[in-house]
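Blinded run. Sample ID left blank on purpose so nobody reads anything into the name before looking at the predicted structure. Input follows.
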Amino acid sequence: MKNSLVFDLDGTLVDTAPDLMSAHNHVMKKYGYEEKPLESIRHLAGRGAAAMLIKSIDAQGNLVKNNPIDQDTHKQMTNDFITYYRKNISGHSTIRKNVISLLDWCKEKSIICAVCTNKREDLAIKLLKDIKLYKYFDFIAGADTFEYRKPDPRHLTNILDILEINKKNTIMLGDSETDANTAKAANIHFVLIKDGYTEKNLADIHHDHLIEDFEVVKDIASNYLKIKE
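Blinded prediction complete.
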């Protein structure tokens, strides 16, 4: 019987906010829009670069009406974001506390690990390779891996189908309502990570466990997945 942990990436495994916001501000400055502070990542992240830019431009709710952004411009801004971000993807991003300890433990216990992220697959792989986490994962599903992405539950369940793992033997870990809604729709046990990229009150986000230290996940996984010591 195979067990698995499926992780979100940005804000969960890795604090990528400094590099994401650097790319965001590079593009905003270039196209004459307002640059944003680091903490803006909480409401901008989660749905990919294209959505991030639109959300930032329309932060006041009516800016797009007053200063329309056409599809070609939006596409070019997104391309510029990705080009800049790819070159600077891991400059200031940091692995969250005890993530490596948990991933080493998973290897020891033969728990299969995967990533389910709304970051493009090529960017997710590059980031994980740059910060030396790539070796821990059996499958990485980005925003463009399938024809759907989170919060569509198929983004998660298709990973399990490919790895031939029962969802009852799976735990998903993420930091936002996008992850939570994905896991809930897929009927998969969900661990919510504190201090991630969300503006919502954590009590209002679906979760089975709420943690801030990944070391705790060892006990959660041992109990839920019935891992033998």
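Unblinding after everyone has recorded impressions. The domain at 4-15+93-224 is CATH 3.40.50.1000 (Rossmann fold).
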